[in-house]
Design brief:
Elements (H helix, E strand, L loop, with lengths): L1 H14 L2 H8 L3 H15 L4 E4 L2 E4 L1 H29 L3 E7 L7 H13 L3 E7 L2 H10 L4 E5 L8 E15 L20 E4 L6 H13 L5 E5 L3 H9 L5 E4 H7 L5 E3 L7 E9 L5 H7 L4
Parallel strand pairs: 3-4, 3-5, 7-8
Antiparallel strand pairs: 1-2, 5-11, 6-9, 6-10, 6-11
């Protein structure tokens, strides 16, 4: 097979002398000559012009040498890349990003640090809701995600808490409670609420509803809102009040509504980084070692 003879051919081509080439490879000259002859017989062409004091590549030999050098360079590049992949210096990392969590300082810091420290690892950022991220993490469709936790946590995932976000009350700017120094849940007994349906976020729905009921408030829900922006829009129009993620309000910087803290509403959203407990990939390991 020609490939196994290539190192002998390259040495002879570069030394232009069979004896020096054999010495360079640490073999007998006769062994090298046999291998070169075997190559020529297999290819059906003379690769060298023989002279009393050495050899010189034939036209066919020159072409083979150039192609062989390119092949050798490509092979070296391939092996180097495989080594970098194994070491986590190169590769890809699929990262799920909840649109609210993504803009928090700690998550921005982690992403920026990783890009700066590992520029050859491709960060494949995927904007996804927390529930979908959990599904993809469990099935292997994501490597790491930034999610709001929804107990119970899946057993095959590991979570690292990064912080928590609270809820605030969104209301029309001229609402009767807008100037109240302290607002309690009981003050909202006569209000019309916009609420995120349970089908969209069972945890948020249940936690908020249970907190209200525990304080004697049975919210009168008249509008379903698929997201916090919907609640803010309804509040802006003067149609309803509703609880929204305080971090979302901060990011939107919406000046069209009044946002107030409710003193006895003790409900928070814990956000975390999540990954498969069994995943030992090098890019993920490097991501997890970043200071948080």
């Amino acid at each position: 097979m020609v490939l196994r003879h290539l190192p002998f051919f390259i040495a002879a081509a570069e030394e232009e002398h069979f004896e020096r080439a054999a010495s360079r490879l640490g073999i007998a000259q006769s062994a090298l000559s046999r291998r070169i002859k075997a190559m020529e017989d297999e290819l059906g062409v003379a690769l060298f012009e023989r002279f009393p004091r050495g050899v010189r590549l034939s036209l066919a030999g020159k072409q083979l040498y150039e192609d062989t050098r390119q092949l050798t360079r490509n092979f070296q590049l391939a092996t180097d890349r495989i080594k970098r992949l194994a070491q986590g210096v190169e590769g890809s990392l699929r990262v799920g990003i909840n649109e609210i969590v993504a803009r928090t300082p700690i998550v921005l810091k982690l992403i920026q640090q990783f890009r700066a420290k590992h520029p050859h690892i491709d960060l494949d950022l995927k904007p996804l809701g927390s529930r979908r991220q959990i599904e993809l993490l469990a099935s292997g469709g994501l490597d790491v995600g930034f999610v709001y936790r929804s107990p119970p946590d899946p057993k095959d995932l590991t979570f690292a808490d990064l912080g928590r976000h609270s809820y605030v009350l969104a209301m029309p700017k001229k609402h009767r409670l807008a100037t109240r120094r302290v607002i309690y849940l009981r003050d909202l007994a006569d209000e019309q609420f916009a609420w995120i349906p349970r089908a969209v976020s069972a945890v948020a729905y249940d936690n908020l509803m249970n907190a209200c009921i525990a304080k004697g408030l049975s919210p009168r829900i008249v509008y379903d809102a698929r997201a916090g922006e919907g609640i803010l829009s309804l509040a802006c129009l003067g149609l309803a009040v509703g609880f929204v993620n305080a971090e979302r309000v901060r990011q939107l910087n919406d000046q069209t509504v009044m946002v107030r803290r409710v003193a006895d509403l003790d409900v928070t959203l814990n956000f975390a980084m999540a990954w498969r407990s069994s995943d030992r990939s090098a890019p993920l390991s490097k991501f997890l070692t970043l200071p948080r």
